[in-house]
């Protein structure tokens, strides 16, 4: 059963009690991410996420790890371009201890200077890891190409220079500005006593006031760019990204866009997977995905192939994009795609963690809850005509952006450009 409660300080608590589960997941979602940083602050959101696990006034970093292990639970965090999330997943019998630990991290993290210097080295290694992973790197390059100078183009990890320059008071000032009660959602899903959970969270988080008098910069939608970006790098493969327009998260056409993505490259029965990998053996990894933000969206195709086949793979990708945008999809293909989407959706929501994620995203994006039944109904309601219209809007060739990374010859660089 879904329930929403607004604490006295403005923090929103959204819950879904699922008595059939033995676990419960609680997440603190802060409506700030890499897009909310100034250029000199690149990487702050992600770095703050790391520092919340480096010791509090009452627990060392090692003690935090021991305490969550003693519960047999999982505690972690992640940063996106628009949110920063801290969560804990435990057996229902350990919920109160887990909430105490989560509250301690969120309110009493020390941000010690020595720990900050040590964590800089960790994050710099994380940045180097991306540079050594061509699949990640080409997608970072592609994001910068598509979004231009917009804050959404910036790497979530930041740049080596900005991370190296971080100081303690910079991080605390950022928290003061961005961790406002009205920008925080606490989501809980699983088996719990509703009254006890609400009282505990109200006691532990209801007095949170950081950022109450501050305001972060307003967001604005990006202009999406097309064109070509080719980077030569000594690798075994050429890594390609083809980018197109998507839809914002929560958009009225999002389910039709999900169909377009699934048909193009979002599943193993998709056209690109079948044509490029299964029929021709030109790639091991080829897929497409949608990225939906609060005010924009993109659709991206990724493929990795040997250098001699890069142009051929790119031609096949463009061909399938053109086919869907000019011909649409048939009734049987739509039926299969909707069945696949519904099955995948239901399986993805079987855990307390995935339910918690959905609760928070619903609240942050639309301010209201969408049930599983409503989502299945929305998928069923997608018609061929709607898919064709959305495909024409999203897959227009004039908006296509192509990024390549790998051992490209001068001739290939010229032809791919």
Please characterize this protein's 3D structure.
Its EC number is 3.4.24.-. Its cofactor is Zn(2+). The protein has 16 helices and eleven strands. By secondary structure, the chain is α+β, with helices and mostly antiparallel strands. It folds into two domains: about 200 residues, Cytochrome Bc1 Complex, Chain A, domain 1; about 190 residues, Cytochrome Bc1 Complex, Chain A, domain 1 (2-Layer Sandwich). The strands form two sheets. Strands 1-2-6-3-5-4 form a six-stranded mixed beta sheet, sandwiched between helices. A five-stranded mixed beta sheet has the order 7-11-8-10-9, with helices on both faces. Strand 1 and strand 2 form a beta hairpin. The chain starts with a strand and ends with a helix. The mean pLDDT is about 95.
Q: How many structural units, i.e. domains?
A: 2
CATH architecture of the largest domain: 2-Layer Sandwich
State the CATH class of the largest domain.
Alpha Beta
- Percent of residues in helices comes to 40-55%
Look at the structure and give the mean pLDDT: 95
User: Which sheet architecture does the biggest sheet show?
Assistant: 6 strands, mixed
The computed structural class is: alpha+beta
Supply the key terms.
Cytochrome Bc1 Complex, Chain A, domain 1, alpha+beta, 16 helices, 417 residues, Peptidase_M16_C, 11 strands, 2 domains, five-stranded mixed beta sheet, six-stranded mixed beta sheet, Metalloenz_LuxS/M16, Pept_M16_Zn_BS
Write the layout of secondary structure elements.
Layout: E1 2-6, E2 12-17, E3 23-30, H1 44-51, H2 61-70, E4 74-79, E5 84-91, H3 95-108, H4 113-131, H5 134-147, H6 160-164, H7 168-178, E6 184-190, H8 194-205, E7 227-232, E8 238-245, H9 254-264, H10 271-279, E9 286-292, E10 297-305, H11 310-327, H12 331-348, H13 352-365, H14 372-380, H15 384-394, E11 401-406, H16 410-416
Parallel strand pairs: 2-6, 7-11
Antiparallel strand pairs: 1-2, 3-5, 3-6, 4-5, 8-10, 8-11, 9-10
Helix pairs in contact: 3-8, 9-12, 9-15, 10-11, 11-15, 12-14
């Amino acid at each position: 059963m879904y329930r929403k409660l607004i604490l006295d300080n403005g923090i929103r608590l959204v819950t879904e009690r699922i008595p059939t589960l033995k676990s419960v997941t609680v997440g603190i979602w802060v409506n700030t991410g890499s897009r909310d940083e100034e250029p000199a602050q690149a990487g702050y959101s992600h770095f703050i996420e790391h520092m919340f696990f480096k010791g509090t006034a009452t627990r060392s970093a090692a003690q935090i790890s021991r305490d969550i292990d003693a519960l047999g639970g999982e505690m972690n965090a992640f940063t996106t371009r628009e949110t920063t999330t801290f969560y804990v997943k435990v057996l229902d019998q350990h919920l109160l201890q887990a909430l105490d630990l989560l509250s301690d991290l969120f309110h009493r993290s020390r941000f010690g200077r020595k720990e900050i210097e040590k964590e800089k080295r960790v994050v710099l290694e994380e940045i180097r890891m991306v540079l050594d992973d061509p699949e990640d790197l080409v997608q970072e390059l592609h994001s910068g190409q598509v979004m231009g100078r917009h804050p959404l183009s910036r790497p979530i990890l930041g740049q080596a220079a900005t991370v190296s320059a971080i100081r303690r008071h910079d991080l605390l000032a950022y928290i003061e500005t961005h961790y406002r009660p009205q920008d925080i959602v606490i989501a809980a899903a699983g088996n719990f006593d509703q009254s006890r959970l609400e009282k505990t969270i109200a006691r532990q988080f209801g007095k949170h006031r950081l950022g109450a008098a501050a305001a972060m910069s307003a967001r604005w939608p990006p202009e999406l760019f097309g064109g070509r970006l080719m980077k030569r790098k000594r690798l075994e493969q050429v890594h390609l990204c083809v980018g197109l327009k998507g839809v914002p998260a929560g958009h009225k056409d999002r389910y039709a866009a999900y169909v377009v993505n699934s048909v193009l490259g979002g599943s193993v029965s998709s056209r690109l997977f079948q044509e490029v990998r299964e029929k021709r053996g030109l790639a091991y990894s080829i897929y497409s995905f949608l990225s939906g933000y609060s005010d924009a969206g993109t659709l991206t195709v990724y493929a990795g192939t040997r250098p001699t086949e890069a142009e051929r793979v790119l031609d096949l990708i463009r061909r399938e994009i053109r086919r869907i945008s000019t011909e649409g999809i048939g009734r049987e293909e739509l039926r299969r795609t909707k069945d696949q989407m519904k099955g995948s959706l239901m399986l993805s929501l079987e855990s307390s963690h995935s339910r918690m994620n959905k609760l928070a995203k619903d609240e942050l994006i639309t301010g209201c809850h969408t049930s599983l039944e409503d989502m299945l109904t929305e998928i069923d309601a997608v018609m061929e005509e709607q898919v064709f219209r959305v495909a024409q809007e999203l897959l227009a060739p004039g908006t296509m952006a192509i990024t390549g990374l790998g051992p490209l010859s001068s001739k290939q660089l010229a032809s791919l450009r």
